[in-house]
From TrEMBL:
UniProt feature, compositional bias: Low complexity: 415-424
Name assigned to this protein: Sensor histidine kinase
Residue span(s) of domain Histidine kinase: 312-394
Lineage: Bacteria, Bacillati, Actinomycetota, Actinomycetes, Kitasatosporales
Biological source species: Streptomyces flavofungini
Domain of life: Bacteria
InterPro entries with a match to the protein in the record: HATPase_C_sf (IPR036890), HATPase_dom (IPR003594), His_kinase_dom (IPR005467), Sensor_HK_TwoCompSys (IPR050482), Sig_transdc_His_kin_sub3_dim/P (IPR011712), Sig_transdc_His_kinase_ChrS (IPR017205)
Gene Ontology molecular function: kinase activity
Pfam family, one: HATPase_c
Residue spans crossing the bilayer: 17-38, 50-69, 81-107, 119-138, 150-171
């Protein structure tokens, strides 16, 4: 049937071939019984025909079955097997017409082992040759010849139909096996791609976490080292204050690193609300915080996005706004949404120009992961405003009184973190990435 010989795939045809063996066995046993029981015109016809049937069975077991179990059977082996089998069958059919019952066993084998045109030729020989040989050898009357000829014609048509069905079943079984193999390969490919995508997503998440926590802490430490180096000779007290702040920043970085390793919430969010966490972060940068609306517990993922966005915006303001810039943080709770605005009165930048950096790209990605948006509005000399809008689930109970502003918090917590981080001039290679053209100018 197939162009290339080889073992058949493990499919329904192979698993069901034992049924074919049973079918062939029943046909051969029935033929042998008929050959031994019917009356024959000659004394040697009955045993001779039975012997040929037995030889045909042995030939099937020795040569035929291995051929039938081979996909795209070697046509030379198949032709050799069916040539010998057809010769034995025709000889037995010439001696006794009842042995033509073996036609029902040989016809399926022709279509299993041979290509279609050879199978059709063999089918014609199997049906025509025994009747012609029987008529020439025994010279029966015209009625018997007619009846046997009609039977041969019906058997020929039936064999062609059966062969077509067999070809269809074999092709369908092979297609099913190919489809299963293709599906298994596709499933393995999907699993591989999913694993790679998961690893990439986790790598991107860790990159953002490290950038928004440890990298910012190290940046602050560098700036404090520079400040201490400049103050050692003429302002020892200020240098000591900055050394204390370096110690507090290092401890904060260590806590954030432990949180990342353990997969916990950020250190600033543990044991408090989002406004409290923003106040602690803003205090380390000397920024004031204003909260509008009624604060309420939010899903942890949204609180993490808001906190990290605030940290990124404050770090950019510390690096690029200038030492005298005023930085403000505004957090607004409103029905269905949370708005975070971090603005400064620093030097600003051209949002239409090309900028290198990872921070604002990560900020936008964080917001998009929770169906939010991040917008950067700035202009040279007019400051910068970073606005993050996040969707919130509808709260249960009364609507928020979002029009009642709380007074600005004083960035003066106890401990070394109360000392503002000294600012330095902007570093061009750390500038935020470009966004859409500004629609407004931050105050």
């Amino acid at each position: 049937m197939s162009a290339e010989p080889g073992p058949r795939d493990s499919n329904q045809w192979d698993r069901g071939f034992l049924l074919w063996d049973c079918y062939f066995a029943v046909v051969w046993v029935g033929t042998l019984v008929l050959a031994l029981s019917v009356e024959a015109p000659g004394s040697a016809a009955r045993p001779g025909s039975a012997a040929l049937v037995v030889l045909l069975l042995v030939w099937y077991v020795v040569s035929g079955r291995p051929v039938l179990l081979t996909e795209g059977a070697d046509q030379r082996r198949a032709v050799r097997y069916l040539t010998v089998a057809t010769a034995l069958f025709v000889a037995s059919g010439v001696l006794i017409t009842e042995t033509r019952l073996l036609t029902f066993a040989l016809v399926p084998q022709c279509f299993i082992a041979l290509r279609i045109h050879r199978a059709m030729v063999t089918l014609a020989v199997i049906n025509v040759a025994p009747v012609a040989g029987w008529a020439l050898l025994w010279r029966p009357d015209a009625q018997n010849v007619f009846l046997n000829s009609v039977g041969a014609a019906v058997s020929l048509v039936f064999g062609a139909a059966l062969g077509t069905w067999i070809i269809h079943i074999i092709a369908q079984s092979q297609e099913r096996a190919d489809l299963i193999a293709e599906l298994e390969a596709s499933r393995e490919e999907v699993a591989r791609l999913s694993t790679e995508r998961g690893a990439l997503a986790e790598r991107e998440r860790m990159s953002r976490e490290i950038h928004d926590t440890l990298a910012q802490g190290f940046t602050s430490l560098l700036m404090l080292v520079q400040a201490v180096d400049a103050e050692l000779d003429h302002d020892v007290a200020a240098a000591r204050r900055h050394l204390e702040l370096m110690q507090a920043t290092a401890r904060q970085n260590l806590a954030e690193a432990r949180s990342l390793v353990a997969g916990r919430a950020p250190d600033d969010l543990r044991g408090g609300s989002l406004p409290d966490a923003l106040r602690r972060v803003a205090a380390r940068h000397g920024a004031a915080v204003t909260v509008t609306g009624t604060a309420r517990p939010l899903p942890p993922g949204l609180e993490v996005v808001a906190l990290r966005s605030c940290q990124e915006a404050l770090t950019n303001a510390a690096k690029h706004a200038g030492p005298d810039a005023e930085v403000r943080v505004a957090l607004g709770y409103r029905p269905g949404g949370l708005t975070l605005v971090v603005s400064d009165s620093g030097c600003g930048f051209d949002t239409g120009a090309h900028h290198e950096g990872f921070g604002l790209r990560g900020l936008r990605t964080r917001a998009a992961e929770v169906s939010g948006t991040a917008e950067v509005v700035s202009a040279p000399g007019a400051g910068t405003a970073v606005t993050v809008r996040l969707p919130l689930p509808e709260p249960d109970g009364a609507p928020d009184a979002h029009d009642r502003p709380e007074p600005p918090d004083s960035p003066a917590p106890s401990g070394p973190s109360a000392v503002p981080v000294p600012r330095r001039s902007p570093a061009p290679h750390e500038s935020p990435e470009p966004s859409e053209p500004p629609e407004r100018t931050a105050p």
